[in-house]
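In response to the reviewer comment on reproducibility (Comment 2.3), we provide here a single inverse folding case reported in full, input and output, so that an independent group could reproduce the run without further information from us. The C-alpha cells appear first.
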C-alpha cells in the first residue's frame, strides 16, 4: 500500500492540463451527476486539482479518501488548510472525481482508504498541494501589484503587501495559470497553526440533518431493484435455477446469472450467484427466497470451524514452519540474527519452563451499520455507479473490467458509507450491480440482505496459538518458542505482532502452520494484530507471573531502549492507578500492541460477579502515534476501535458448519450494544513527536481484549483463552 511520491511527480501532475490549472473549471460539472457533496464546490477557480476558491473566499477541498466514519473528510481539508493558511470556517470538503483520478495517471496519488494511512502516509503530498496553492496565490498578487513576491504575505485567506490587500478569491483565477519553478517545502511540526488543535468534523452537519447520501439512498429515474444470493458455501458453483417458479410473483422482472471467473476468487472477484430483479427490493428478496436453486457446494462443504480447530490442535503438537526474515534469520526489525535452532534446547535447560495452553480467536464478519448497496446505470456510451467502497479508483476500474469498458466512460460517484472496517475494501457488489444493469438494460439498485452480507463477507481469519519459554534465575525469559496456526490463504495475518513483538527475549523461535480453508479472507480493523495481540499480551502476563514480576514492570524491563514503548508504558504506570490487587471480584489488566505504526497501551478495570458476569468498568488508552493532527478525532477513533474490538471479544464468533456460516443476522451474531459499553473511557496521547507518523483509526483495538482478559484473571484467577468471552467459564 506504500506509494512513492516525489516533488518532481507533484510538479509533473499538477502542471498538466488534465491534472489542474484550469481556470474556473467547475467541480460539479466534473462529477457528472454524483450524489451528495460533489456539487458543493460549484464554480470557482481551480488552483490545482485539490482545491478551488470562489469569489466569496470559500475554499472547496477535494477528498480522495472515503468517509466511513473515521474522519477523512475533515483530516484531508485540515492538512491542506494548514498550508494554504485559510480560516477553517471558510473550508468545505468535496468528493473526489474517481473518473478524473483514474484517467489522469492517478491524479490524487491514492484513493485507497485503509490501514490508517490517510494522515500517516499521505500528509506530505496533501500538505504539498496546499503549500503550492498558497505560493501561486502569492505570485499572482505580486504580479498584479508589481511588488517582489517576498513582500507578499498570505495569511488566513488574505494577501497583503504594504498598503495592498486582497482576498484569496480575488487572485484565484490568476493563480491557476501560474507554474512555480520549485515547490515550497511543507511546514515542520511546531510551525502549525491549525494541525494539532481540536477541530470539529465537517461531516457532522450532513449526517445529522439527513442530507448525507449513502449508496442505499441513491435513486435514478427508471430504477429497478435487485437482491442476490451467492453459493452459501464460498467457492461453490451454480448448477441451475428455475425462474419459471417465481416469474409470476408480484413485481418480478427477471433473474440474472452472475458467473465466477476464477477458480479461487479473491475478495473483489465475482462469485457464482443468482440475482432477482423486481420493482422493489422486498419483492426481489422475497422472490429470491422462493427461487429453486441447485448448487455444487465444492470442497468447502466438508469444512467446519470445529474441523479446523481439530486440525489446528494437531498441528500445534508438531513442529511448524520457522519464520525467517529477508536475510534468512529469525527475528524482526528490532532483533536480527537469533539462533532459532538452539531455542528448544535452551528452553529445556533453563531454570524454569513455562508452557502455554492454546489461545484462539474465531472467524468474524465486518457487519457494518449499513448493509452493502450499489446503484449501477449501464448505458451504451457510459456507466454510472454509486457503491459501497473504500477505494473509489479501484472500484471504478473493477466495474470497467467487469463490463469490458474503457475507464474513460465509467463514472463512479462517491458517497458516504455507514461503516467500513475494511469491508468496503473487500467487496464485489459494484461488479454485481453493473452486470445486472447491463443484463436488464435499466438502472439497478442492489442491496445485500444482512444474511447475504455476513455469509459472503471477507472474513477475519481464525488463529490458534501456543508457546513455550525458559526462564532464567532473574525470572525473565532466556528463550521463547511460539507456534501460530492460521488459515491457508492469508498466512501473513496469523504472524503479525508475534514475530515482531517488541520484547527483547535473547533467543526466539517463531513457527507457523495453516489449516485447510475455503472461507474468503480479507482485511479487518488492525488485521493480524487484532487476533495476535490477544495471544501475545496474555502470554506476557503468564511469563511475568511465572517469573515473579509485576506484568507492567516486566513490559518496561523487556522494552528498555525502545523510547516509543517506554513512553507509553511509563504513562500507563503513572496515570492509570496501576495495581494488580483490587480485591476479590475486581481486577486491573494491561496490554500494549503496535499496529499501523502506532503503539497503543490499554489498562482495563473490570468487575466479575459471583455468577460470572463480566462488567468492564473503565478503559484507559495511551497512544503514541508520533504526531496527532486533530486530538478530538484521535480520541474518537481510539474509542471507536476499542469498542469495535471489545464487541468481537464479548459477543462475536462466526459459526461455520458444513462449509457455511450459520449465524448470519444479529439475532445469532451479536454486536456490542450501549448497555455493554463502558461509561468511562480515557484516551491519553503520549506522542514522541520525533519524525515518524502512525495511524489512529485502528490501533486502540488490539490491546483491548487482552487487557480485559488479564484484568479478569486478576479478578477471578481464571484465564480466558478464547473469544467470545460470553461463552467462557469464569
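Designed residues, in position order:
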Amino acid at each position: 500500500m506504500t506509494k512513492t511520491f516525489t516533488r518532481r511527480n507533484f510538479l509533473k501532475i499538477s502542471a498538466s492540463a488534465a491534472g489542474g490549472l484550469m481556470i474556473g473549471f467547475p467541480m460539479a460539472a466534473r462529477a457528472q451527476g454524483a450524489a451528495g457533496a460533489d456539487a458543493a464546490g460549484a464554480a470557482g477557480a481551480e488552483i490545482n486539482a485539490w482545491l478551488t476558491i470562489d469569489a466569496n473566499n470559500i475554499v472547496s477541498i477535494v477528498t480522495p479518501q472515503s468517509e466511513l466514519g473515521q474522519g477523512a473528510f475533515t483530516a484531508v481539508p485540515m492538512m491542506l488548510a494548514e498550508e494554504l493558511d485559510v480560516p477553517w470556517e471558510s473550508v468545505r470538503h468535496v468528493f473526489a472525481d474517481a473518473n478524473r483520478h483514474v484517467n489522469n495517471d492517478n491524479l490524487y496519488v491514492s484513493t485507497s482508504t485503509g490501514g490508517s494511512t490517510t494522515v500517516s502516509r499521505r500528509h506530505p503530498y496533501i500538505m504539498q498541494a496546499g503549500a503550492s496553492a498558497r505560493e501561486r496565490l502569492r505570485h499572482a498578487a505580486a504580479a498584479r501589484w508589481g511588488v517582489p513576491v517576498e513582500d507578499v504575505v498570505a495569511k488566513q485567506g488574505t494577501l497583503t503587501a504594504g498598503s495592498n490587500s486582497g482576498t484569496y478569491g480575488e487572485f484565484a483565477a490568476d493563480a491557476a495559470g501560474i507554474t512555480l519553478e520549485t515547490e515550497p517545502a511543507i511546514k515542520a511540526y511546531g510551525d502549525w497553526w491549525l494541525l494539532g488543535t481540536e477541530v470539529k468534523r465537517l461531516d457532522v452537519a450532513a449526517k445529522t440533518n439527513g442530507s448525507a447520501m449513502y449508496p442505499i439512498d441513491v435513486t435514478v429515474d427508471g430504477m429497478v431493484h435487485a437482491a442476490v444470493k451467492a453459493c452459501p458455501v464460498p467457492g461453490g458453483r451454480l448448477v441451475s435455477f428455475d425462474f419459471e417458479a417465481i416469474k409470476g410473483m408480484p413485481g418480478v422482472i427477471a433473474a440474472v446469472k452472475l458467473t465466477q471467473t476464477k477458480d479461487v476468487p479473491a475478495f473483489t472477484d465475482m462469485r457464482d450467484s443468482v440475482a432477482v430483479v423486481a420493482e422493489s427490493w422486498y419483492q426481489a428478496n422475497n422472490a429470491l427466497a422462493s427461487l429453486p436453486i441447485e448448487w455444487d457446494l465444492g470442497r468447502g462443504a466438508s469444512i467446519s470451524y470445529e474441523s479446523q480447530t481439530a486440525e489446528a490442535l494437531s498441528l500445534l503438537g508438531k513442529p511448524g514452519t520457522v519464520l525467517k526474515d529477508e536475510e534468512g534469520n529469525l527475528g524482526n526489525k528490532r532483533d536480527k540474527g537469533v539462533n532459532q535452532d538452539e531455542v528448544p534446547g535452551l528452553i529445556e535447560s533453563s531454570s524454569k519452563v513455562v508452557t502455554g495452553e492454546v489461545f484462539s480467536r474465531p472467524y468474524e464478519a465486518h457487519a457494518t451499520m449499513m448493509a452493502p448497496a450499489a446503484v449501477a446505470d449501464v448505458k451504451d456510451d457510459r456507466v454510472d455507479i454509486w457503491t459501497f467502497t473504500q477505494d473509489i479508483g479501484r472500484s471504478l476500474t473493477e466495474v470497467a473490467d467487469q463490463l469490458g469498458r474503457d475507464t474513460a466512460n465509467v463514472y463512479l460517484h462517491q458517497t458516504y458509507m455507514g461503516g467500513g472496517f475494511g469491508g468496503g475494501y473487500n467487496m464485489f457488489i459494484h461488479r454485481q450491480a453493473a452486470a445486472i444493469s447491463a443484463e436488464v438494460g435499466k438502472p439497478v439498485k442492489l442491496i445485500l440482505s444482512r444474511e447475504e452480507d455476513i455469509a459472503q463477507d471477507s472474513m477475519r481469519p481464525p488463529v490458534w496459538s501456543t508457546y513455550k519459554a525458559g526462564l532464567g534465575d532473574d525470572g525473565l525469559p532466556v528463550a521463547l518458542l511460539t507456534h501460530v496456526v492460521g488459515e491457508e490463504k492469508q498466512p501473513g495475518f496469523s504472524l503479525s505482532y508475534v514475530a515482531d513483538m517488541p520484547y527483547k527475549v535473547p533467543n526466539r523461535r517463531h513457527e507457523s502452520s495453516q489449516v485447510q480453508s475455503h472461507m474468503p479472507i480479507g482485511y479487518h480493523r488492525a488485521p493480524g494484530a487484532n487476533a495476535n495481540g490477544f495471544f501475545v499480551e496474555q502470554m506476557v502476563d503468564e511469563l511475568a507471573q511465572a517469573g515473579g514480576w509485576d506484568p507492567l514492570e516486566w513490559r518496561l524491563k523487556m522494552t528498555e531502549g525502545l523510547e516509543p514503548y517506554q513512553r507509553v508504558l511509563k504513562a500507563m504506570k503513572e496515570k492509570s492507578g496501576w495495581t494488580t490487587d483490587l480485591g476479590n471480584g475486581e481486577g486491573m489488566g494491561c496490554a500494549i500492541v503496535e499496529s499501523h505504526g502506532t503503539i497503543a497501551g490499554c489498562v482495563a478495570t473490570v468487575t466479575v460477579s459471583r455468577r460470572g458476569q463480566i462488567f468492564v468498568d473503565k478503559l484507559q488508552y495511551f497512544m503514541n502515534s508520533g504526531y496527532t493532527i486533530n486530538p478530538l478525532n484521535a480520541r474518537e477513533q481510539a474509542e471507536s476501535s476499542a469498542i469495535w474490538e471489545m464487541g468481537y471479544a464479548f459477543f462475536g464468533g462466526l459459526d461455520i458448519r458444513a462449509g457455511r456460516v450459520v449465524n448470519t443476522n444479529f439475532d445469532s451474531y451479536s454486536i456490542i450494544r450501549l448497555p455493554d459499553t463502558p461509561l468511562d473511557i480515557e484516551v491519553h496521547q503520549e506522542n514522541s513527536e520525533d519524525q515518524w507518523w502512525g495511524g489512529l483509526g485502528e490501533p486502540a483495538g488490539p490491546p483491548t481484549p487482552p487487557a480485559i482478559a488479564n484484568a479478569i484473571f486478576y479478578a477471578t484467577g481464571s484465564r480466558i483463552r478464547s473469544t467470545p468471552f460470553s461463552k467462557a467459564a469464569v
